[in-house]
Amino acid sequence: MAWASLLDELVRELDIVIVVSAGNVSNIDVPDFNNRIELMEKSRNQLLGTGHRLIDPATTALGITVGSITRYEEPESFPQRPTPLSAGKKDYPSVFTRTGAGVNGAIKPEFVDYGGNLAVVQQIGGRPRWNSNRALNEPTLNNTLEKVFKGWQGTSFSAPHVTHIAARLERALQSQLGEVPSSNLIRALLASSAKCYEKDWLETITPPDFTGAQRQPQAWRLQLCGYGKVDDSTLFSDRNHVTLFAEDALNLREIHLYKIPVPTEFLDLRTNKRISIGFAYNPPTRLSRKAYIANSLWFEVFRRIDAEALLSYKGKKTDADEAAAEYIIENFSRKHGAPFSPGYTEVRDSTLQQRVWEKSAHGGSDLLWDNNDPYIYVLITGKSKFKHPYEMEPQPYALAVTFSYDNAEDIQLRQKISERANIRLREQVRTRAQIQV
Question: Which residues form the Peptidase S8/S53 domain (predicted)?
Answer without folding.
Answer: 12-206
